[in-house]
Design goal:
Helix content: 40-55%
Number of strands: 5
Distance between the termini: 17 Å
CATH architecture: 3-Layer(aba) Sandwich
Oligomer: single chain
Shape: globular
Structural class: alpha/beta
Strand order of the largest sheet: 1-2-3-4-5
Strand content: 15-25%
Amino acid sequence: MNDPVVAAAQSAFAQRLRDSSDVSDNTRNAQAIAKAWRTAVYELDPDRYQIEALVAPDLDQKIDVLDTATNTAYEFKVSGKNATGEFYKDIVKVIVWNRKRKRLIGKLVFITEKEWGRKYLETPMPREYMKHLESHGFVVEVAYVQHS
């Protein structure tokens, strides 16, 4: 996948702490990576990429990045741990978005860390769910970032 939004995630992921067991340090680090990624995407083209697009005010949920040129949503789960929970939640966010809007999102790119994310997402249930969604015109792709 030659996608500038995914490339920005990979670049931001280079800041990832390694081998730290401190939960607070890891949380702050993940937040810093996500912010660096959103900033880099914004700088690609602020008129094209909407950062933290509000799904609906009553839900208080946001889509990390919305590419308004391709109607593609991007979500970045920095840690691959619990990737399935975030994966399904992010799909629901797009489903709700599409239910409440005229301009529909046709694709979600879920970005996460390769080592843990692959263990959780390259399994039968997520694959079948992605096939089901695609049969209804909604494409979900998983992109992985990793340490160099």
